[in-house]
Design goal:
single chain, about 475 residues, alpha+beta, six-stranded mixed sheet, 11 helices, 23 strands, about 30% helix
Length: about 475
C-alpha cells in the first residue's frame, strides 16, 4: 500500500484515511470497507455489529470517571461518490484512489477523493484506537449507501443503541455547526422513443468543462447544469434546422450537478455551416450568462463525416417530447426559506440523462426542508412525465432534520470551539441532506449536531481536503469528548 500521507498530522487519522482510500468503496460497493471496519473493531477487542446492509456499529466503554456520562454517538458514512474526468482511466470498482498532497490539501488524481465521508470514518477509528483519550461511552455508527438515498441509515436497527447525543461528522465546512437539514428523494422519469431511418451527416454535440458540484451544498452557486445546456442547445438547433437525434446522455450521479453531457445528431449537409454558426452564438451566450460562476464551459459540435449515411434517429414526435422535458421540467432552486434568510428551501437537480434501448430516462435529486414541497416537486415531475406519455417513480425518500431550540450538545460544541479557536462557530441549517433526519426519526430524543473539516468541490474530481482543518477538527472532537464528564 502507498504511503502518500505518511508524516501528516494527526498521524493516525491520515493513516486510516489512506487505508480507506486504498479500498474501493463507492456507493453499492461497500462490503470490503465494511469488513475492514469490523476487522478493526475485533483487532482492538471492541464490541461490533454488522448488519445485512453492511452498516457497522462499534462500541467502546467509557474511560474511568466517565461511567455516568451520557453515551455519545459518532456517525458518518462509508460510501463515496465516484466521479472522474473523462480522460482518466480509472476503475472505481477495483482500484484504490491515487492520492496526492499539494501544500495544505489532499486530493486524488483525476477522481473524487471521498473525503465525503471517509474522513469521518478515519476520525472515528483514530478515536476508538486511542486509549489515552478520556471520553464517555462511545457508539460509532458507520452507514452505507448514503450518497444514493441514505439506504443504510433507513434500515439501521437502533434498538440496542443507547446514545443521548450525536456528533455527525458529515459536514464539509470547518466552524459550521449544523442543526437542521433538508429531506429528499431520487426521482426518475422514462420517456419511450421510437426510431426511424434518416439520411444525413453524423455529428456529436458535447458540453464539458463545467464545475459541477454537490446538488445540495452548491445548488445556490449559479453553476450550469450540463444536461440542461445540452437540451437547450438541441432546442436552439431544432428551432431553425432539420435535426435528427440518435442519442442523448449526461451526468453520472443524481446528487452531483452534471459537468458533461453529449448527444449524437444528424444534420442535412446543407445545414452544417449554419449549425456551426448557431453553436458559436450559443457558446457566446452561455459564456456571457455563466462567465462568473462557470467560466470554462465548452460547447462543441464535431462533424464525424462529410459523407451522407442513413442513421436511426428518434421519431420527430418523440424528439419533441424529449426536448420539452429537457427545457420545461423544473430544475435548480425552487423556493427560499422565509424563516432562515439565505437558506435554499427546496430544489431539484437533473443529474442523469440516459438513452437506454427504446427509452430516454431523466433522474433528479429532489430536496426540501418542508415535506409538502418535496412531494409537490415530485408531483410536478410525475404530472409532466405522464402528460408526455412516460412513466415516473421515486425512491430513497428521506426526512428532513428539524431544528431543536434546546440542545446541550450544540451549546457544548459552540463553547468548546470558541475557547479553542477564539471565535464563534456559525450555527446554521443546510440544504444538503444528512442522515441526521433518518436517525432522529428513529431516536426522537437524540440531541444532534453535524460538523467536519473543510472539504472543497465534493462530488467532483476537484475535491480536496484541508490538512490543517483536519488537525483543528480532530482537536475539537477530542476536546468535546473529554469535557462530557457527568
Amino acid at each position: 500500500m502507498s504511503e502518500v500521507l505518511k508524516g501528516l498530522e494527526p498521524e493516525r487519522v491520515f493513516h486510516y484515511f489512506e487505508e480507506i482510500c486504498g479500498i474501493p468503496h463507492g456507493s453499492g460497493n461497500e462490503k470490503a470497507i465494511s469488513d475492514y471496519c469490523v476487522a478493526f473493531a475485533k483487532s482492538h477487542d471492541l464490541w461490533v455489529r454488522q448488519d445485512e446492509a453492511n452498516n457497522v456499529v462499534i462500541r467502546k466503554p467509557a474511560s474511568a470517571g466517565y461511567e455516568n456520562a451520557p453515551v455519545v454517538m459518532l456517525q458518518g458514512h462509508m460510501d463515496m461518490v465516484c466521479e472522474k474526468n473523462s480522460d482518466v482511466d480509472f476503475d472505481f470498482e477495483k482500484e484504490g484512489l491515487r492520492l496526492r498532497v499539494d501544500g495544505d490539501f489532499v486530493s486524488a488524481d483525476g477522481t473524487t477523493l471521498g473525503g465525503d465521508d471517509g474522513i469521518a470514518v478515519a476520525f472515528a477509528l483514530a478515536i476508538l484506537e486511542d486509549d489515552s483519550l478520556e471520553h464517555p461511552e462511545l457508539e460509532v455508527v458507520i452507514t452505507t449507501d448514503e450518497e444514493v438515498g441514505m439506504k443504510g441509515a433507513s434500515v439501521l436497527d437502533v434498538s440496542d443503541l443507547k446514545a443521548s447525543c450525536l456528533l455527525n461528522l458529515d459536514n464539509e465546512s470547518e466552524g459550521q455547526i449544523l442543526t437542521s437539514c433538508a429531506g429528499g428523494m431520487k426521482s426518475r422519469a422514462s420517456l419511450p422513443v421510437r426510431f426511424v431511418g434518416w439520411e444525413g451527416v453524423g455529428a456529436e454535440l458535447k458540453i464539458s468543462g463545467l464545475k459541477g458540484g454537490h446538488s445540495g451544498a452548491e445548488i445556490h452557486c449559479g453553476r450550469a447544469n450540463a444536461n440542461r445546456l445540452l437540451g437547450r442547445f438541441l432546442f436552439e438547433l431544432n428551432k431553425e434546422l432539420n435535426v435528427g437525434v440518435c442519442e442523448v446522455s449526461g451526468g453520472m450521479k443524481d446528487n452531483a450537478i452534471p459537468r458533461e453531457a453529449q448527444a449524437k445528431i444528424v444534420l442535412r449537409p446543407e445545414d452544417v455551416a449554419r449549425a456551426k454558426e448557431i453553436r458559436d452564438k450559443f457558446a457566446a451566450d452561455i459564456q456571457d450568462e455563466f462567465g462568473v460562476s462557470d467560466s470554462r464551459i465548452r460547447i462543441e459540435l464535431k462533424i464525424e463525416s462529410e459523407k451522407e449515411e442513413e442513421f436511426k434517429i428518434f421519431h420527430p414526435a418523440d424528439m419533441e417530447r424529449i426536448l420539452f422535458m429537457f427545457v420545461q421540467s423544473p430544475n435548480g432552486i425552487q423556493t427560499m426559506s422565509m424563516e432562515l434568510p439565505g437558506l435554499v428551501e427546496s430544489s431539484l437537480n437533473m443529474g442523469i440523462v440516459r438513452t437506454e434501448g427504446d427509452e430516454v430516462s431523466f433522474c433528479w435529486a429532489v430536496r426540501s426542508s418542508k415535506k409538502s414541497l418535496k412531494f409537490y416537486i415530485s408531483d410536478q415531475l410525475a404530472y409532466m412525465t405522464e402528460f408526455l406519455g412516460g412513466t415516473y417513480s421515486y425512491d430513497g425518500e428521506y426526512p428532513h432534520w428539524s431544528y431543536r431550540s434546546h440542545s446541550p450538545i450544540r451549546e457544548t460544541v459552540a463553547a468548546t470551539y470558541k475557547e479553542l479557536f477564539g471565535k464563534d462557530a456559525n450555527i446554521e441549517a443546510i440544504h444538503a441532506g444528512l442522515e441526521c433526519g433518518l436517525i432522529s426519526e428513529k431516536m426522537p430524543d437524540l440531541d444532534i449536531v453535524a460538523m467536519g473539516p473543510d472539504i472543497f468541490d465534493i462530488h467532483t474530481p476537484d475535491e480536496h481536503l484541508s490538512i490543517a482543518s483536519v488537525q483543528r477538527t480532530y482537536r475539537l472532537i477530542r476536546t468535546i469528548l473529554s469535557r462530557m464528564k457527568a
